[in-house]
Amino acid sequence: MGRMRKSPGDAVFQFVVDNYLVLVLLVMVIPIWRVFMLSVTPQVDLADRTFGMLVPPSKWSLAAYRQFLTHPSFLIATWNSVLILAMGVGLGLFLTVPLAYVLSIRNLPGRKLLHTFILIPFLFNPGLIPSYLVVTGLGLYDRLLAVVIPGAINVYNVFVMKNFFEGLPEELKEAARIDGAGELYILFKVVLPLSKPILLTVGLFYGVHYWNDFFNAILYLGDARLQPLPILLRNILQAANFNDYVDINVFSEARMESLKAASVFLASLPMILVYPWIQRYFTKGTLSGGLKG
Fold first, then answer.
1. Lesser CB count within 10 Å: N end or C end of the chain?
2. Digit-coded pLDDT (tens) for 179-228
3. 147-173 pLDDT tens trace
4. Alpha-carbon gap, residue 282 to 95, rounded angstroms
């Protein structure tokens, strides 16, 4: 069977969409590429600026990365970010999965009331001051949990996961109930094994949130030893004395511009590496969780 011929209108539409996506790709890739090129540029090439920042330098230098990866402040901030990420994603999924499953049970008594109860804080944010008073009142100030707990449940993620659970075949759950299985057994033995795409998708949402969380960290973490990478990055970019964060002097191999670029690239690298691995599940999980109302 021959391929269907596209009409002129479809061909024009496809051409516009393809070029738009290429433009979006360039808008995202060019800044990352420029920052990386700046971070590997040696002092000589950076000083004379005889080449553009989009062109690879004649000789690459990893001096900026060596200085960062061996400095205690960067290593401590990275460890704090990893701890926040691990606790945040784990706690977020631990709380989101059972709540989404309960909401997906169609004959659950009081289901609409529970929907309303969950939507109220989503639509009407209590504000900064009440949130701050609750966190400090619980004694969480200057603890990593102060960054983890406020964002542990995201209502959007709950409803995306709920819609995915509702899209699973109801016959599988009913067959398990007929065999005498309880809801916890159905959740762990029937639903979750079929839910890898949505688990990875929601886990990615939580991961990006916690890895990039700047506001809660600067609000609740006063101890410099607890500050994660976003705070360190902000301090580096605004620092008057750069030696507080990395050893630099007149004999350093890397200039300040390269060090700042290296810090930005290192902070962005984990999410850049993780997303391509999750992307195939991300598309399926997002569409399956977003289409069903």
1. N
2. 888 888 888 988 998 888 889 889 989 999 999 988 999 999 988 889 89
3. 999 889 999 999 989 988 988 888 888
4. 20
Residue 160's nearest CA partner among 2, 278, 24, 285 is 285
Count of CA atoms in the C-beta half-sphere (13 A) of 1? 2
Q: Tokens for 133, please give them.
A: 């008073």
Query: 244-268 burial, b for 16+ CB within 10 Å, e for fewer?
Result: ebbebeeebebbeebbbbbbbbbbb
Q: How many angstroms separate the CA atoms of 240 and 144, rounded?
A: 27
DSSP assignment, residue 106? Answer: T
- Alpha helix segments (H runs only) across 149-195: 155-167, 170-178, 183-186
What distance lies between CA 243 and its chain's CA centroid?
Answer: 30
Residue 291 has pLDDT above 50, yes or no: no
